[in-house]
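#struct-help
A.M.: can someone run this one for me? Single chain, 137 residues.
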Amino acid sequence: MKQLNKVAYTTAATAGGGRGGRTTSEDGTVDVELGKPGSGKANPETLFAAGYAACFGGALNAVASKEDLDTSESTVTADVKFGETDVDVDLAVDLVASIPGVDEATAQRLTEQAHEMCPYSKATRGNIAVSVTGKAV
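D.P.: on it. Structure tokens below:
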């Protein structure tokens, strides 16, 4: 297992009550009442989707900047699915990066490169199904 040689940032969040409880971050920026899917309240999958989409967008910007491309107006949607497998429950994610100002081939290539760099992608690789699609817009 990889170890961090230099920690750039540390944060923590605490959840109480499971899916029907509340989660708060140590710095107070997150304070969310949780509910089961379909309840109209945030759930762990919603929070994971938001974090993954934002992190992936940062990775996309980083890989694009190496080619002097500006992807700051891009959007990333993380479509997180929660469901049953043959043996238990699991997640799957479809990531779609909509990138203005590039062609389809460049959009897909940048998206695949971001997938190699993104910490969320690294954390999920080999653990859950993740697909990536780059779209020129």
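A.M.: thanks! Strands lie at 13-16, 22-25, 31-33, 75-84, 89-99, 129-136.
D.P.: also worth noting: The mean pLDDT is 96.
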